[in-house]
């Protein structure tokens, strides 16, 4: 359980890596962002289908696992529908806006990302309890997609306030909800967790991660006007995660 909490904290607080990157390079290049977002999607899709859903099918059966998988898709759809958080695809929007309006948008952006990170924290925590290598894979995948989120929050807040401390703080707060989700899972869910429930949660986690990849990461990676880099990033991400999963076996 200690390792599960540690991995979740690392994945969630990777938003601060994006924040630090934002201080070094205020506006990352379109090619960089397009590739990184595609790469993150490839990592998450590979982990979801090859590890999470596959493991769940082995333990609770094809119909049960895929029903849970579809539930994960629906859960993230509802969260995204009621609390949308468009951020990277409009990366130049603040250039024509007042600083007060940008600050308002940045604070809501941090709140939206924080809410989205909460179920990801539960996913990393439960995956680690099921099997350490699963937890590591999920943590890596989530950390990679949290980096551009941290960058988005910090660059927006910094533009509005010109205060690096505030920019870093809000980026940090948007990621801290991930280990918070793990702590709540440890307190509330742990006493009731069984191998069957764990595998249902793994399949739900797979659905959550596939939704994030298809609905958010891939469209955003293509929004930077790069025709081929998104798919190149996706392929490289899948290849890197394949090698990582092979090493972890």
Describe this structure in words.
The protein has 249 residues and is mostly helical. It has one domain (2-22, 40-248). It is built from 9 helices and no strands. The longest helix is centred in the middle third of the chain and has 32 residues, at 99-130. Residues 87-91 have low confidence and may be disordered.
Describe the structure concisely.
Helices cover about 85% and strands about 0% of the residues. It is mainly α and about 250 residues long.
- Global geometry: globular
Structural class: mainly alpha
**N to C succession of SSEs:** HHHHHHHHH
Total count of strands: 0
Strand content: under 5%
Unreliable runs, pLDDT <50, ≥5 residues?
Answer: 87-91
Q: What does the largest sheet look like? A: none
Number of helices: 9
* Percent helix range: over 70%
> What value does the average pLDDT take?
79
Q: What distance separates the N and C termini? A: 21 Å
Radius of gyration over all CA atoms, rounded: 18 Å
Count of domains? 1
What key phrases describe this protein's structure?
9 helices; 249 residues
List the helices and strands and how they pair.
Blueprint: H1 2-12, H2 15-24, H3 30-60, H4 62-82, H5 99-130, H6 132-161, H7 164-189, H8 195-222, H9 229-248
Helix pairs in contact: 1-5, 1-6, 1-7, 2-6, 2-7, 3-4, 3-6, 3-8, 3-9, 4-8, 5-6, 5-7, 5-8, 6-7
């Amino acid at each position: 359980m200690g390792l599960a909490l540690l991995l979740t904290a690392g994945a969630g607080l990777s938003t601060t890596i994006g924040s630090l990157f934002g201080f070094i390079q205020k506006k990352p290049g379109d090619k960089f962002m397009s590739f990184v977002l595609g790469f993150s999607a490839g990592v998450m899709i590979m982990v979801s289908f090859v590890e999470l859903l596959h493991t769940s099918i082995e333990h609770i059966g094809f119909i049960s696992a895929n029903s849970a998988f579809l539930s994960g898709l629906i859960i993230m759809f509802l969260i995204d529908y009621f609390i949308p958080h468009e951020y990277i695809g409009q990366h130049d929007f603040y250039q024509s806006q007042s600083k007060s309006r940008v600050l308002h948008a940045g604070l809501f952006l941090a709140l939206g990302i924080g809410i989205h990170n909460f179920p990801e924290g539960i996913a990393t925590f439960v995956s680690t309890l099921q099997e350490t290598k699963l937890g590591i894979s999920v943590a890596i995948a989530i950390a990679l997609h949290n980096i551009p989120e941290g960058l988005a929050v910090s660059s927006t807040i910094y533009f509005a306030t010109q205060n690096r401390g505030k920019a870093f703080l809000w980026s940090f707060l948007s990621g801290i909800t991930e280990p918070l989700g793990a702590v709540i899972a440890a307190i509330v869910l742990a006493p009731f967790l069984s191998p069957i429930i764990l595998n249902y949660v793994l399949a739900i986690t797979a659905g959550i991660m596939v939704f994030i990849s298809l609905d958010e990461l891939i469209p955003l990676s293509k929004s930077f006007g790069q025709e081929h880099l998104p798919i190149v990033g996706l392929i490289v991400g899948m290849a890197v995660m394949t090698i990582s999963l092979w090493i972890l076996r």
